[in-house]
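Batch manifest line 295
LIGAND: acetoacetyl-coenzyme A
JOB: complex structure
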Amino acid sequence: MKNISVIGAGTMGNGIAHVFAQNGYKVSLVDISSESLNKGMATIEKNLDRQVKKEVIDQDTKESTLNNISTHTDLKTGVQNADLVVEAASENVNIKLSIFKDIDSFTKPEAILATNTSSISITKIAAATQRPDKVIGMHFMNPVPVMKLVEIIKGYATSDETLDATVKLSENLGKVPVACNDYPGFVANRILMPMINEAIISLFEGVAGVKEIDTIMKLGMAHPMGPLQLADFIGLDVCLSILNVLYEGLGDDKYAPCPLLVNMVTAGKLGVKSGEGFYDYAEGPKNAPVSGQFA
Ligand code: CAA
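JOB STATUS: finished
ARTIFACT:
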C-alpha cells in the first residue's frame, strides 16, 4: 500500500494524514471545503514544527511530510488512486453511509475502505458498499501524532485479509493496533464514556466541583487529563452522541447521558472547539479557568 486517501481535514483527519505522510505514504487529503483543507494543512505544519522543535523529527522530514500530502475538494479525484481510504468526516451516520456508497464506486475494487468512526457500526457502514469484506474500523486517538493506539474494529463481514493488512499498516505508522469486534462503542468508548458521564453526574449532583473532580482523577489515577477536561478536549457534542449510541445500542439506563451534558450541548458549550465547556478557553487551553454555573 502506497496511496492513502483521508476524507475530512478536521482534527482527526489532519492528524491521520500527518502520520501517514510522515511515514512515507502519499496522502490525498479530501474535504468538501477548501477552507477546511487550508486549516487542516496549517495544523499539520504547526504540529510538525512542534515535533522539529522537540527534535522528534528533522527539518527534512517536515518538508517531505508536507510534500507527501495533496489536497482535493473533489471526492472522486481524491480517492481514485487509493489503496486505502480512511474516512474521518463528521460523526453522522447518513453522511458516512453516503460517503461509503460513493467511495465504493470511485475506488479500485481491491482498495480497503476504513472509517475512523468512534461509535457508528462498522457492519452498517460496510453494508452500504459492495465490498463489506474490505470495510474496517481504524479508530485513531486524539492527538493522532502522539497517541499510540489504533483501535481496529472488525465488522461482521470484515475478512481476515483486511484485518491483517490494516494491522500491518498501523504498525508501519509506529502505532499499536488492537483489534476488537463491532459492538456499540467498541472497547475504548464503551469504557471511557461512562467514566466521563459519571464525572458529569458527580458535578451535576454537587458531589464536587470541576477542578476537584479532575484533580482527583488526574492525580489519583495518573490520568494525563481529568475526565471533564478530557470531555472538553474530545468535544461535548461528540461525547453526547457516543453516549446515545451506547444507550440505544446496549439498551441499558446506565449509559443515559447526564442532563447537564445534554443542556451544555444544547447551549452550544462544546468544550475547546467552541471556546467554553467545563472550562473557559477564551485565552487558550492552557490553565483554562472553570466556567459556567458550576464554577
Ligand atoms: N501533534 C504533535 N505533537 C503533539 C500534539 C500534536 N497535535 N499535541 C501534543 N503533542 C506533543 C507535545 O509536543 C509534547 O511532546 P513532548 O512530550 O515530546 O514534550 C507532548 O505531546 C505533550 O504535549 P504538551 O506538553 O503540549 O501538553 P500535555 O503534556 O498536557 O499533553 C496531551 C497533551 C498529549 C493531549 C495529554 O494531555 C493527553 O495525553 N491527554 C489525554 C488524551 C486522550 O485521552 N486522548 C484520547 C481521547 S479519546 C479519542 O480520541 C477517541 C474518541 O473516540 C473520543
